[in-house]
Amino acid sequence: MRKIISNTTPILSLLKIDKLELLKEIYGTVIIPRAVFQEIEKGKDKPYYQNLSLVNWIKIERIKNKESRTFFFDLDDGEAEVLILANEQNADLVILDEIIEGMQSDLR
What is the radius of gyration, based on Cα positions, of the chain? Predict the structure, then answer.
């Protein structure tokens, strides 16, 4: 099974257009770090909100090395934990909505 880890904004964007199931159709299981889950939980009052802990194909995981978070001072908690978790789990794919300094030239 491939390990796919997602950040908050891609999930929120799909929730807003009622297309979260696309992730399941494309990837099967998607992993999100605890910080991403918490960011989504802040929007419980939104009409598109969905409790991701009840979605059986989304796995919520905690990072093991919490100290590594301090190295990502320019990213929010969700983005930092996505990258840390991806490294810890040797992820096959990361779904992230940020351009990380130094990677911009690789994307052109």
Answer: 14
